[in-house]
Automatic annotation (TrEMBL):
Protein name: Guanylate kinase
A Pfam family recorded for this sequence: CPT
Keyword line: Kinase, Transferase
A GO term, aspect molecular function: kinase activity
Iron-sulfur in keyword set: no
Region (Disordered): 160-186
């Protein structure tokens, strides 16, 4: 059965760091590189064009799209299919509950859902450390993520982690344990 990991949390909660720790732990874990239409940071994305996005939408291959920071970020069916080839387990980064719901509803796989959290002060500190030039926008996104999470009190998580208090490799090991032992949802 195909499987993947959904990492949800505000900017700078540690999604990249936890993903790196997972890929060090086991080579089957791979970062799902979302399609990005726009400008700015390119690392960790597949850069696309508005025409590519229009074609994906016309085929029904957009699983989830969000627009933030003046860009469009897309989880697409062909991208997920490719990421799961050869038994790989993609790690998908999301900051919106709508994305969590769309991916689990529209892309059949065994999804392990992980909530990564950090304080707003931590986001303010980590954002410039990782090279962001738009920390104010990241802090606004932190507020939006907190409100989004509060609006979904019944959200189900296999794991919740405070990344202010838990080391990345410990978190990766806990996620790996869940991936290896949790039966698929019925």
């Amino acid at each position: 059965m195909r499987q993947g990991i959904l990492l949800y949390g505000p900017p700078a909660a540690g999604k990249d760091t936890i993903t790196a720790a997972l890929t060090e732990l086991d080579e089957r874990y791979v970062l799902f590189t979302r399609l990005k239409i726009g400008a700015g940071k390119t690392k960790g994305y597949r850069m696309g064009t508005p025409e590519q996005l229009t074609a994906l939408e016309a085929r029904g291959d957009v699983i989830y799209r969000n627009d933030r920071y003046g860009n469009s970020y897309v989880v697409d069916r062909p991208g997920l299919d490719h990421a799961m080839e050869g038994g790989k387990t993609p790690v998908v980064h999301l900051g919106q509950m709508a994305g969590m719901e769309q991916v689990t509803a529209l892309y059949p796989a065994r999804w392990v859902r992980v909530l990564l959290w950090c304080s707003k002060e931590t986001t303010a500190r980590r954002s410039p450390q990782r090279g962001d030039t738009d920390t104010a926008a990241r802090l606004a996104a932190w507020d939006a993520t907190q409100a989004d999470l509060a609006a979904h009190p019944r959200a189900q998580w296999e794991l919740r982690v405070d990344t202010d208090a838990t080391a990345p490799h410990e978190t990766a090991q806990r996620i790996d344990d869940i991936v290896r032992t949790t039966p698929p949802r019925s």
